[in-house]
């Protein structure tokens, strides 16, 4: 496995691979890999000949009070895991090479960025869309793989690639969970023992929502209330939002119909966890 | 000469040309071609084997009170001129194909977009940066050619391509002028006879500024005052701005030093004309 630091060199590497007729799959990450990331690699390997992973903790997607400085990093461990999983090349740029002096350009995906996590993390999705647009140009792959855990991010990137005519196929891979249902996240390392145990309530509350829908419930407020009551009964998490939205607009809906996203964010201590489920409702 | 309407088809056309080792030059336009556009084609032909011109009046760069609907259009004439000049393929998309339903993504180039024309045309450069980012992805050329007449636009696009890692060389081509010095512009057709005559004052006032600088003047306010007085003495134009800025930041400077842009915008009747000069000052 190669590690490439220079944006120009990785572009050349990808171009050469594609010139030889190889299909290239791209897995963008902020590192501190867990089984969720490795599931992205597994998906990428099913469709492609060459797998590129980027590891870059992107400063522009963190708010001034967020955890950019203390975001967990361990390149050696990441490189080991990536290699074992069959990654061919890691792109591991410096922040200075990614954001040159007088960097001025930002990509925003309006509408989709305002609701859900966009409410409590202003500017976050602007940073995400900007760095992914850059990465897509640096790594002109056939397909790129994102986890459903960050559903809003995945929908925003899909829309961004379409709107900017970036010829990369954006694929969304199902969330990987711990045994008790907690969605894998690099931020789970922040949780203490009781927070870790309580974290699984998010998944269980989403399962409750699914059950209600299967039983015929179509009223958003009723489902949201049941989910909220369930979380409040079972732990001390501070709920940021529980929302049910249309997956095209990410706007709240009153009656469930078509493809819907049920998304939750909650603080366990200072750690903000998110989880979601996507359903087709008739 | 070919005309291609479909974004996907033009991308495939460019890829095939490049796969054969051809250099591709791209000239983006809004049509209604004049000698300024043809000078871009001439520059492109010097560096490339295949010349692509896009003709697209981009709705997102016009303000609600601007001239999108009545912007001059004449595809037949444009195609004739382009062919005569040696363009190989025209990309002539519909607005519907360029902006799909639920288009949500915009590219902004902060700082560079706020001053000069950005002041009187809010949102204009966001529309320009967005459509050019799209065009650069649709037409993955080696180089793209922009006229210096729209200097702020050219600097914004250069920065945008750099910041988003778009591997297209952005080249700025000197302004082409009428015999009396008026910068060529598709909007010159809006001018009546006396406005047309007065339009040339912009160029003459810039020549005055150059003369003052050659004589040693380095004080921006003094140069701006001289230019303003000259224009006011010679015609009835309503000056929008006269600015002297650093070409890296496009911010106003007090003392001239390094590469500077002297830019003017003025209304002749309802028609807004712009002109500029770029100088290296020691």
List the helices and strands and how they pair.
The structure is a homodimer of 282-residue chains.
Chain A: E1 2-4, H1 7-19, E2 24-29, H2 35-47, E3 50-55, H3 75-85, E4 89-91, H4 95-98, E5 105-109, H5 117-120, H6 124-138, E6 143-147, H7 151-163, E7 169-173, H8 193-199, H9 201-214, H10 220-234, E8 238-246, E9 258-268, E10 271-281
Parallel strand pairs in A: 1-4, 2-3, 2-6, 3-4, 6-7
Antiparallel strand pairs in A: 8-9, 9-10
- Describe the biggest sheet of chain A? 6 strands, parallel
> What's the CATH architecture name of the largest domain in chain A?
3-Layer(aba) Sandwich
Name of the level-1 CATH class of the largest domain in chain A: Alpha Beta
The CATH homology group name of the largest domain in chain A: HUPs
Description of the structure:
2 copies of one chain form a homodimer. The first copy, chain A, has helices spanning 7-19, 35-47, 75-85, 95-98, 117-120, 124-138, 151-163, 193-199, 201-214, 220-234, and strands spanning 2-4, 24-29, 50-55, 89-91, 105-109, 143-147, 169-173, 238-246, 258-268, 271-281. Chain A has 10 helices and 10 strands. In chain A, strands 1-4-3-2-6-7 form a 6-stranded parallel beta sheet, with helices on both faces. Chain A folds into 2 domains: 2-173, Rossmann fold (3-Layer(aba) Sandwich); 186-281, Pantoate-beta-alanine ligase, C-terminal domain (Pantoate--beta-alanine Ligase, Chain: A,domain 2, 2-Layer Sandwich). Chain A has 282 residues and is α/β, with parallel strands linked by helices. The longest helix of chain A has 15 residues, at 124-138. In chain A, strand 6 (143-147), helix 7 and strand 7 form a beta-alpha-beta unit. The interface between A and B is medium-sized, with 30 and 30 residues.
